[in-house]
Amino acid sequence: MNNVSKGKVALVTGGTKGIGKAIADQLSNAGIQVIITARTAPGESTAGQYFIPADLAQPESAETIAGEILGKYGRIDIIINNTGANLSPGGGFSTLSDEHWNNDWQTNFMSAVRINKALLPAMIEQKSGVIVNISTGAAKLPLWEMTMSYSSAKAALNAYSKALANEVATYGIRVNVVSPGLVKTPLMSEFIENLAKSSAVTSDEVHKSVIDKLNVPIGRMAEPEEIANLVTFLVSPEAKYITGVNYSVDGGALPTI
């Protein structure tokens, strides 16, 4: 990353595992002060990273995080809204209760809305900033039997991100979306293990069936670092004319351009 980014302050939500950890590590390695949030502390501390425990499904968390960041560092330059999870059971509309819908929307949509609302005033005052909202390919290719409420929440995140990008561009703030496909994360591994147990098949068989079902031309899941590579570029000065865009990183699974 360009040295101009050194000394800046970044927030990565859900930054202790998987994609979030890969992003946080890359930004730290570029000389950026990184704040990470999650419900549980990281297994090991990393130089250049400051941890704030938080459950972003809870409305009050965003203001608490924003207050601590601005109180400690006095600025915020980069926001990576990575918090998200497919929390609901599979099986389609009849299996989803109001609680399932609410949990998915709080975690996957409102968490980002609240964080941005709490920190954008500081970016506007600085007249600079970058926001990357992590969505999913399932927002454009929803699977009714597995991702109905999750996909809906992330589709809302996509629409919100485009509107926000248009609103804050005049303040020197850029907003983009990165939509990963299948990524080899701890959550994905847990999902595959659980599906294998419930289906009485091996994890390898489930892994192959998921790849086949989503028709991934590259034929494998992404590594978290491959998602982080794009995010790191988007927050850098090299991407200063890019805003309001949704980037798919899915190994070619999305069947349209």
- The overall pLDDT, averaged over residues, is 92
**Amount of beta strand:** 5-15%
Q: Into how many domains do the coordinates divide?
A: 2
Q: Give the CATH level 1 class of the largest domain.
A: Alpha Beta
In total, the number of strands is 7
The helix-strand sequence is EHEEHEHEHEHHHE
What do we call the CATH topology of the largest domain?
Rossmann fold
Protein name: NAD(P)-dependent dehydrogenase, short-chain alcohol dehydrogenase family
Family: Belongs to the short-chain dehydrogenases/reductases (SDR) family.
Organism: Chryseobacterium soldanellicola
InterPro entries: NAD(P)-bd_dom_sf, SDR, SDR_fam
Kindly describe this structure.
The chain has 257 residues and is of the alpha/beta class. It has 2 domains: 3-181 and 223-249, Rossmann fold (3-Layer(aba) Sandwich), CATH 3.40.50; 184-221, no CATH class. It has 7 helices and 7 strands, in the order E-H-E-E-H-E-H-E-H-E-H-H-H-E. The protein has helices at 18-29, 61-73, 98-126, 148-168, 186-199, 203-213, 224-234, and strands at 9-13, 33-38, 49-53, 78-81, 129-134, 173-180, 246-249. It has a 7-stranded parallel beta sheet, sandwiched between helices. Helix 2 runs parallel beside helix 3. The longest helix has 29 residues, at 98-126. It starts with 8 loop residues before the first strand and ends in an 8-residue tail after the last strand. The model has no long low-confidence stretch (mean pLDDT 92).
In short:
The chain contains seven helices and seven strands; from the N terminus they run βαββαβαβαβαααβ.
